[in-house]
Design a protein that fits this description.
Elements (H helix, E strand, L loop, with lengths): L9 H10 L3 H11 L3 E15 L2 E19 L4 E6 L2 E10 L2 E7 L5 E10 L5 E8 L14 E10 L1
Antiparallel strand pairs: 1-2, 1-8, 2-3, 3-4, 4-5, 5-6, 6-7, 7-8
Length: 156
């Protein structure tokens, strides 16, 4: 690994490194940091489960959509709007990621991560994960671990 010799202009090195970061990347971080709302759509999903003690999974299409409002990255709060009203959640921005965490008092954990990478039309890549397991499976309800893949539109 090359070393930096004494007397090397560190500003020149930092400028060179920063020039390798795409301009849109820094703009995306700023958009995520200042986001007050998100409209997310997930078109693919995977569901996991265990059969005879062995873990496995299936991938398929999805029509899940999520809406986040009142995002305050400084206060680490946001609301997720669902069919039963709004619910307070935790939000954190770390580098290229905006994480939204929802913990239910009955056990499950849901996370949504918006990634500072554009998909199309100014939307950002997103992953939504549901950590949940119930013995009985009902159509339309989460009963196994699920992960959704899609993107989110950011509202300033």
């Amino acid at each position: 690994m090359p070393s930096i010799r004494p007397g090397t202009n560190h500003r020149l090195i930092i400028t060179l490194i920063m020039s390798l970061v795409p301009a849109g990347h820094a703009l995306g971080q700023e958009r995520l940091l200042n986001a007050t709302g998100l409209d997310c759509a997930f078109s693919a999903m995977s569901t996991a489960g265990w059969t005879d003690g062995d873990a496995g999974g299936d991938v398929g299409p999805s029509t899940l959509s999520l809406r986040f409002e009142d995002i305050d990255t400084d206060g680490a709060t946001a609301e997720i709007v669902g069919p039963y009203g709004a619910s307070q959640i935790i939000v954190r921005q770390t580098g290229d990621y905006l994480h939204l965490v929802q913990m239910f008092t009955v056990g499950p954990l849901y996370t949504t991560t918006v990634i500072d990478r554009e998909t199309r039309d100014g939307r950002f890549m997103a992953v939504h994960t549901r950590h949940e397991y119930t013995d009985t499976q009902l159509v339309g309800f989460t009963s196994r671990p699920e992960q959704y893949y899609g993107d989110c539109a950011v509202e300033p």
